[in-house]
Amino acid sequence: MFLHKVETLIVCDKARRLLVRRLVRRSADLYNKGSMASLLQIREISTLSFNERVLQEAEDRRNPPMERLRFLGIFSSNMDEFFKVRVASIQRRQEMGKKGMMEILEGVGHKSRELDERFQAAYADILTALALEGIKIVNEKDVAHQPRAVGDWLEDYFKQNVLPLLVPIILNKRQSFPQLKDGALYFGVKMWGEKLRYAILEIPAELPRFVELPNGNMMYLDDVIRYSLNDVFYIFEYERIGAYEFKISRDAELDIDNDFSEGYVRKMERVLRQREGGRPTRFVYDASIPPGMRELLLRALHLDKDDTLIGGGRYHNMKDLMTFPSHRPDLSFEKKEPARHPVLDRERMPIMDIIENQDILVTYPYQSFDHVIRLLREAAIDPKVTEIRMTLYRSAGRSQVVNTLVNAAKNGKKVTVSIELQARFDEENNISISQRLSEVGAHVTYGVPPMKVHSKLLMIKRRNKIIVGLSTGNFHEGTGKLYVDSILLTADKRISADVEKVFTYLEQAAKTRTLAQPTFKQLLVSPFNTRKTFTKLLNREKEKGAEGYVFLKTNHLTDEGMIKRIRAAADAGVKMDLIVRTTYAMLPHENIRAISILDRYLEHQRIYIFGRGDELRMYLSSADLMERNLDWRVEVAFPIYDPSLQQIILDTMAMQVADTFKARILDEQQSNQYVGESANGHRTQEDTHRYFRDLYAIPDNGHALMRPLATEAPEATSQDIEPIAQ
């Protein structure tokens, strides 16, 4: 169980920081001795360290106030998932008798408390900044000081929009306690009078969390309900009434056995229903809740003082801050339109004709994800296209990608889609997509259960040629505006032949569980040859010693085998640049410059480069350097052969290495120290916007379009490591 004794344990901020740092240092000592328990410790603290970087963006006054508020929402969402997934996993290990788990949980608990306090401070600071701009958030008590027309409007809004959706449940001994949903917001309602009464009231998730009042002020939906609480419980006699917010996070792990006789979709639907009753991993409540009500809720949820009990502010589910209404563009990041693509936006011809003649790289959101939609739309209606195959891991709610596949099937194309039903928190959406595609005659497969299919592949058969798309991120037009990803579009027979092999493997796996291991000549496909090839390339650079070079950009670097080989190469003198967005389980090394970049976009590309010049080997991938991605998922890493496209990647990665504005140093203490905090430092995402804009302005000269960008290594990291260059 998660020992987080909020009620009895008082730890000052300095002591809490020392405890976490001591835990990390102890982990490092064990890690040097080869302890996997220490690797897990570093991983969990590192995940929290990434969430701290998100929180830093909310604290950073260089960011506009509306963006700072949005980062608070992202932080809250990340912490919800952390408790539902990572903390739940550690709890299960603890119950299985694994050693060292309690220490990890205590360290995580103290770090979480520190971050929560910083969250509250940042929230108050942002509200002050917004108030200076005339944007105020008022509560139910403030309404008395507003014009009477505001109160009348609120009462009418409540009766018309909110009251019909409220379902109050009166608690009594004769009736079992209601099943509470993971992540939902509830009021614990207490009515004082001759007879004490308690009730549970769910705050409707289908309504906007923030209500804009006639005078321009904003109000939480929670406070709209508090303001009109008497209109809900008026049939009872009471002297006073109070509503205290709380929520629970539940274990989100899906227990899926290997018996698929009942059908995969039906099994997933059944298992998803079981998740609704998963064990609580965190109970968050208004600290002003009456003790008697709190104890009543704890007993009903079978929680005790050794569980995750977090008494905080009166508002929860602060992830909704991501959707806070804004009518002031000046209080948000300057809107940036995608740059025109130097090839796709220059040629007035079908996109498939262009791809048949040259490789195309699209990097969004710097360039538009609409190019992918355009390709699919053309394929759906082109009479020369006979077949479309695709993998889908996550898709938008009203996905244009899915719409094009439906359209293609209706136009008589053979459409085959591998949909991952185990994409965490997107399971229900993916089941719905699979049913929609099946209804129009598309052939839907579900990968290779229990392995997840995480690769992002597209294949189009046109005339007797094959066009393929290989991406580092999901085919998702929503995240295509927020996540930095790249897609290679090519008709290169060397690559398309391997892509076809991947799809054949996935389709055969849907029919039988006994398969011959496929072989691939160009692609690195997990779980078959990715680890082996990366190991070979690391060893090749290791043999070069100080002449060797490795660049790795990934979301997660936690695989024990990869870490040992990376460190061995660094010990041999190989210079390395590592850009790791989230979890980082390496220890510092004089030959390794390691940073993490967080700015207005989420860095999501995976780029792996080994060597320089003629010996340079470059792969883009859907896979992180984690055991699950290398050994337990179907992932694809794909080579970039075109020299001009290689140069684009080298240029943009050089800008990332040189960032002195939003880059943080990944050190042993997980301190998140900025490489530089000046207002005029190198800000890679701004520089990259200009780079792609200028790329279009270069006169069209075939494959000689691209020119290298000179960069210098940031002095704040390592002066001994040269920047990435061809």
Provide the β-strand percentage band. Answer: 15-25%
Q: Per CATH, what is the topology of the largest domain? A: polyphosphate kinase like
CATH homologous superfamily designation of the largest domain: Polyphosphate kinase middle domain
Q: Helical amount among residues, as a percent range?
A: 25-40%
User: What is the CATH class designation of the largest domain?
Assistant: Alpha Beta
Whole-number count of domains: 4
Distance from N terminus to C terminus (CA atoms, Å) equals: 52 Å
Task: Report the sheet with the most strands, covering strand number, pairing sense and barrel closure.
Answer: 9 strands, mixed
**Outline:** globular
Name the average pLDDT.
Answer: 85
Helix/strand-derived category reads alpha/beta
Could you characterize the architecture of this molecule?
Helix 2 (36-59) runs parallel beside helix 4 and helix 3 runs antiparallel to helix 4. The protein has four domains: 13-132, Methane Monooxygenase Hydroxylase, Chain G, domain 1 (Up-down Bundle); 137-323, Polyphosphate kinase middle domain (polyphosphate kinase like), CATH 3.30.1840; 351-509, Endonuclease Chain A (Endonuclease, Chain A, 2-Layer Sandwich), CATH 3.30.870; 524-697, Endonuclease, Chain A (2-Layer Sandwich), CATH 3.30.870.10. By secondary structure, the protein is α/β, with parallel strands linked by helices. Strands 14, 18, 19, 20, 21, 23, 24, 25 and 26 form a nine-stranded mixed sheet that branches. Strands 10, 11, 12, 13, 15, 16, 17 and 22 form an eight-stranded mixed sheet that branches. It has a six-stranded mixed sheet with strand order 2-4-3-7-8-9. It is globular, with a radius of gyration of 27 Å.
